[in-house]
Amino acid sequence: KQEVTQIPAALSVPEGENLVLNCSFTDSAIYNLQWFRQDPGKGLTSLLLIQSSQREQTSGRLNASLDKSSGRSTLYIAASQPGDSATYLCAVMDSSYKLIFGSGTRLLVRP
Amino acid sequence: GAVVSQHPSWVICKSGTSVKIECRSLDFQATTMFWYRQFPKQSLMLMATSNEGSKATYEQGVEKDKFLINHASLTLSTLTVTSAHPEDSSFYICSASLLGTGRMGNQPQHFGDGTRLSIL
């Protein structure tokens, strides 16, 4: 059974810092891995999608890497801003096209 | 593009009421939509996969008679929580994948803004 773990559960950093969020999964048989952002009481915004054959994806200040063999992904946020404060969710699409989510990292960027 | 609209965004109702939640793909067609539930400070848990024109596939532990899913068109799926009770209070979110642009494994899922259901 696929399990997705995110570390840390919560993170507080001062504005301007670069930071890394971690995601690990137990079964490497995945189609893709997605990083999402969720603001309180809101739905999910897709940030980056990495296909199983890819190693990384970049969008603006965000960079996500994927090491499928070791079951790990990282989301790198450069020059963090208060507006980046949210919960970041990692999800893998398993062999039956289902998304399995981690429990998220709650990020607070202090002005 | 790829906007998913969910309605209503918030529902408060008495115990025993049935509640219907709509999920629409506004600018694309989706043969498959997904329904998730999220309890406070927890992650999303897949409840069921909704397939246009056929019966939904429910995850283990999800009562199909309690959570009725109808996917009558390529742009609309509905989730009806029947005879809702306080323990059904949660945040329900739907998602959809683009149709016909490649294998589903290559497509991101696009999520609605969710429905907060509170049963008194």
Provide key terms for this protein.
heterodimer, A: 111 residues, mainly beta, six-stranded mixed β-sheet, five-stranded antiparallel β-sheet, 0% helix, globular, B: 120 residues, seven-stranded mixed β-sheet, four-stranded antiparallel β-sheet, 49% strand
Span between termini of chain B: 37 Å
Beta-strand content of chain B: over 45%
DSSP, total strands of chain A: 11
Gyration radius over CA of chain B: 14 Å
Helix content of chain B: under 10%
Helix segment count of chain B? 0
Low-confidence stretches of chain A: none
Question: Which structural class do the helices and strands of chain A define?
Answer: mainly beta
Total beta strands of chain B: 11
What about the largest sheet of chain A?
6 strands, mixed
Order of helices and strands of chain B: EEEEEEEEEEE
Largest interface: A-B, 24 and 24 residues
Spatial gap, N to C terminus of chain A: 41 Å
Derived from helix and strand composition plus strand pairing, the structural class of chain B reads mainly beta
What's the average pLDDT of chain A? 95
Treating each run of at least 4 consecutive H or I residues as one helix, how many helices of chain A?
0
Unreliable stretches of chain B: none
Summarize the structure in short.
The complex is a heterodimer of chains A (111) and B (120). Chain A has 111 residues and is an all-beta fold. Chain A has strands spanning 4-7, 10-14, 19-25, 30-38, 44-51, 56-59, 62-67, 72-77, 86-94, 99-101, 105-110.
Question: How would you characterize this protein structure?
Answer:
The complex is a heterodimer of chains A (111) and B (120). Chain A is mainly beta and 111 residues long. Helix content of chain A is 0%, strand content 60%. Chain A is built from no helices and eleven strands. In chain B, strand 7 (67-73) and strand 8 (76-81) form a beta hairpin.
